[in-house]
Amino acid sequence: MGDPIIIQDVQALTDIPNTELFTSLKIRTVANGTMWRDGKLIGALSVVNFNDVRQFNVDEVSLLKGLVDLAAQAITNTRLFEDVQRHFKFEQALHQIDLSITSNMDLQESLDTILEQVTIQLGVDAAKILLLNPETITLRYVAGRGFHSNESHSLDLNLGEGIAGRVAYTRERISIPNLMEASQEIGQTPLLAEGKFVSYYGSPLIAKDQLQGVLEIYHRSPLNPNAEWLGFLDALSTQTAIAIDNIRLFDSLQESNTELALAYGTTLEGWFHAMDLRDKETEGHTQRVTEKSVRLAREIGFTEAELMHVRRGALLHDIGKIGIPDSILLKPGLLSDEE
Question: Are the C-beta atoms of residues 65 and 4 closer than 8 Å to each other?
């Protein structure tokens, strides 16, 4: 930091900006010290004197230099503290999303939690998530926060169509500082007219190199994000994509298990019907044994999961009949030693 710049009488100078302002405010003397930290200019501290010209002695100049340095240090410390707090809030938000995802496999609830953190932590007015339908290759709105209504979200988008479609197609983040100025390019959508949004950010949701959807952010005033803000947006996008992928895999596994259980049950039913057809004298026997076995097990206190196994075991208790030839199974007389 150099010595402060002192102008004894600013009204006597005619080649400096804001001369009229100095005259109207009756400012005569100005002492200005620049604040630097780590080689970067962070501000300036100015001292002014009204009405009369002010003479600064050596001690006063030294004091001003000290005050400028203290102010620079105070501003630096405040900014560092704010950065730490903001980073801590971002980490807390990501942790809360993690807890929501790991403790709940409901897609809608998880997306609502993510959008809540997006709007709060990024300080934006609205956000929404569109999911990719892999069968139709279209984007569909599934969750939103901060919008007046959901009527303008009903249409599916093809890849490359609209802003979200472009984000999905290019797989790159897209920012639009002024939506109204870009309306000719993107179209005057009902959402823009209804929300009067100004700023827009669209981020692709990609997990395992597969596109899951698009996260869109809207704000009703200009946004001037820094690197940390953009980094948090990228982290949220990645986490959202992973959550969607995990929940979809879980739903697919559940669906497969249900289909497998139904197929297994159908197979067992077919087997015991086949056994009834083999032996008309005991037709309905397997069903009766199964019903009584399940009723007895329920009285004993078996759980529903255990009852399922009891039922399957009862259905299969005579399954060996299927492998016995009719000449033996249906023989009216006594069996021979060989039989």
Answer: yes
CATH number given to 104-249: 3.30.450.40
Instruction: Name the residue among 86, 41, 120 with its Cα closest to residue 228.
Output: 86
Report the alpha-carbon distance of residue 161 to residue 259 in Å, rounded: 36
**What pLDDT score does 188 carry?**
47
What's the CA gap between 200 and 209, in Å, rounded? 24
Does residue 236 contact residue 118 with C-beta atoms inside 8 Å? yes
What is the fold of 5-81?
Beta-Lactamase (3.30.450)
Whole-angstrom Cα distance, residue 146 to residue 122?
A: 13
Break the chain into its structural domains and give their ranges: 5-81, 104-249, 253-329
φ, ψ of residue 328 in degrees (nearest 5): -95, -45
Give yes or no on whether 5-81 and 104-249 have one common fold: yes
At 228-268, the pLDDT tens digits run 888 888 888 888 888 888 887 777 777 777 777 777 777 87
Q: Give the residue among 235, 106, 117, 237 at the shortest CA–CA distance from 167.
A: 237
Query: What is the token pair recorded at 164?
Result: 């979200």
